[in-house]
């Protein structure tokens, strides 16, 4: 058993980000499929690093620190590149901004609560939000390169709006829990 595999998978996710961004600048359809392939590999490691850490009882402070950062970096880079390359346009940019703002809000909240030694567990709805978000961004990356029978752009845009809605709901839940600690009105 490789002792550091969960942390290595998390680090892999971070290392893949610049490669994924660079792939966006290749010619169509190579750019779509290569960036999607790298993104999909990173998304898969998001599941397995946590699963392996728990299964092998290797949850570490480094892993707890790096995992949410790797997730946020991956999503932020994907959103920025999808907007920059016109895969997300018009009012759909609002959904992307909602997702980005929530990620920053929750990161700041987690940092503040960590100073108070208060953990913020990830809710099941937040896990669903992450899954929908990752799937939506994957469909948007493939975009026009997908087979005609698969409306990747439509699926991706619908998924992006659903992820934005779940983002608002879960962000509000985290904020409400955090405000109790900030105001001293803990249950």
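-> sequence recovered:
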């Amino acid at each position: 058993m490789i002792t550091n595999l969960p942390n290595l998978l998390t680090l892999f996710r971070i290392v893949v980000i610049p490669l994924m961004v660079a792939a966006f600048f290749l010619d169509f359809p190579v750019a779509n499929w290569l960036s999607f392939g790298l993104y999909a590999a990173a998304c898969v490691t998001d599941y397995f690093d946590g699963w392996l850490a728990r299964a092998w009882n290797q949850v570490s402070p480094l892993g707890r620190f790096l995992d949410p950062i790797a997730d946020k970096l991956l999503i932020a880079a994907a959103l920025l590149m999808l907007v920059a390359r016109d895969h997300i346009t018009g009012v759909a940019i609002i959904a992307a901004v909602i997702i980005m703002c929530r990620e920053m809000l929750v990161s700041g909240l987690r940092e503040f609560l960590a100073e108070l030694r208060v953990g913020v567990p990830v809710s099941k709805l937040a896990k669903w939000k992450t899954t929908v978000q990752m799937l939506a961004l994957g469909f948007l990356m493939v975009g026009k390169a997908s087979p005609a029978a698969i409306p990747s752009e439509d699926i991706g845009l619908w998924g992006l709006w659903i992820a934005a809605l779940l983002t608002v709901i879960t962000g509000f839940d985290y904020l409400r829990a955090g405000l109790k600690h900030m105001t001293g009105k803990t249950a």
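The mean pLDDT is 87.
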